Amino acid sequence: MSNGGEQVVYVVDDDQGMLDSTVWLLESVGLKALPFTSGRAFLDACDASLDACVLLDVRMPGMGGLNVQEEMRSRGLDLPIIFVSGHADVPIVVRAFKAGARDFIEKPYNEQLLLDSVQQALGSSDQRRAAGGQGQLEERLASLTPRERDVLLPLVQGYTNREIAEQLDISVKTVDLYRARVMKRMQAERLPDLVGMAIAAGLVDPLKLR
Question: Which of 35, 128, 130, 177 has the greatest number of beta carbons closer than 10 A?
Answer without folding.
Answer: 35
